[in-house]
User: What shape does this take?
Amino acid sequence: MNEQAVFQISLYLISLLVLALPLGAYMARVYQDESTALAGWFADVEKQIYRRSGVKADQEMTWPQY
Assistant: This one.
């Protein structure tokens, strides 16, 4: 293996280790149905997607509509 390959593998492993704790904490809060900092932003994006695609979030869909 050359130096570039070792550097890339090291960078990948370090980034995984750095992101594991915050991502795990975020996922735990989501699965425990607690509020998160990004929930408001994602809700706004979801509303925009629903509005543009004509989906009504408060109505159930039948299988042909889905």
The chain has a mean pLDDT of 89. The two ends are 50 Å apart (CA to CA). The longest helix spans residues 3-31.
